[in-house]
Design goal:
alpha/beta, single chain, 10-stranded mixed β-sheet
Amino acid sequence: MTKLETLQEELIELYNNNSGNLTAHDIPFIHEYRNAALESFKRLGIPTRKNESYKYTNLEPYLTGSEYGYELAPLNFEVNLDDLFHCDIPELATHIALVLNDFFYSHNRPVNLPEGVILCSLAEAATKYPDIFKKHFGKYADINQDSMAALSTMFAQDGVFLYIPENVVIETPIQIINVGYSLKNLRITRRNLIVAESGSQASLLFCDHTLCAKSFITNSLTEIYLGPNANIDFNRLQNENSNSSQISNIFIHQKEYSSFSGNTLSLHGGLIRNNTFVKLDGEGASNTLNGLFLADGTQHMATFTNVHHAKPHCTSNQLIKGIINDAATGAFNGKIYVDKYAQKTQAYQRNNNILLSDQAKMNTKPQLEIYNDDVKCSHGATVGQLDIDALFYIRSRGIGYDEAKHLLMYAFANEVISTIKLEVLRERIIEMVDKRLRGELSVCANCNISQKN
């Protein structure tokens, strides 16, 4: 029996032994959904490299290297949010909510949101807003095909619920800060549900942090629904310690003429695996996925995308870039799937990577699967080193080798950074990436986290 098979049995046993606590506050359909997820996880197991989607990501050394605890209840203490974090960008006011380990922080400050908007704990939403919850929860994540989504469904008790009514525009960005903090190594499971009804608009910022040097394994799942003509700008910053592993699954379901723009910046973490599943299920929908990852040491950063064009006249764009140094590794596995009914599709996918050392390694696999002739689609990937001629040109202007190298790396990264729509956030991200490229672990400049002794 392999280590992952042993871990699978341990997790199933953990669920069975604690199912009473896990399901104590479940409404009936969630209880049934958990049981279905359990059966899927038993059948699928933890992904190995034999799984085509995980061919270039070996989870075993990250998931089985240490003993991990599990929280069945929220931490019973109160923190001063102003002490825990503060925004050092005065121009960028945000509605802030904290998720501490597995649970939505019960003492979050009330926020002044437009009428009808709901921002609360996922567990609270299940009982207080059952009609909305039942309509969307579990409808977009495929627990029958993705075992990590099934595992998340088994153990998730809480997370963020955001509901935006029809034609409501949230002018101020909403910032969700996910914090890992524990005196022991910890498994964290978070589940989020975001519903943007017809004609609504919002800008979201998710920040992932660890406040201590303990090892965390985070398995998060986020479902996002965009109704007709809805518009969501989604930004994510991943900046955790090197002992941490994160597997993130995001399922996006879009109706006609909706628009989703996503930027993911992975600045630090031992293992980061970002899985994004998109279904363009309405005519004229558009989706943009941009990503930048910076890896060094022995870090592994992987991106998996699956964009399904199900209806005509939809557009999708993917741009994922990586800068890899030392003995770090990266992976990109992306697919554009065009349904036979999805005529006039425009879909583009690009993955570009720079290797800064002889030991650095990148595996990339862009894919097209097209069942309609009336489309415009392209995909491509590059893996290489810094341009020697460009480096020589910069040095000929009196700039030292290290600074010239840094300028080229920044220029490479800026194609993704420039797509961030929030100007003040974009400026702070520039500073963060600049520090990271110089080998510094920068704290999130948008929510400067600090811990009081």
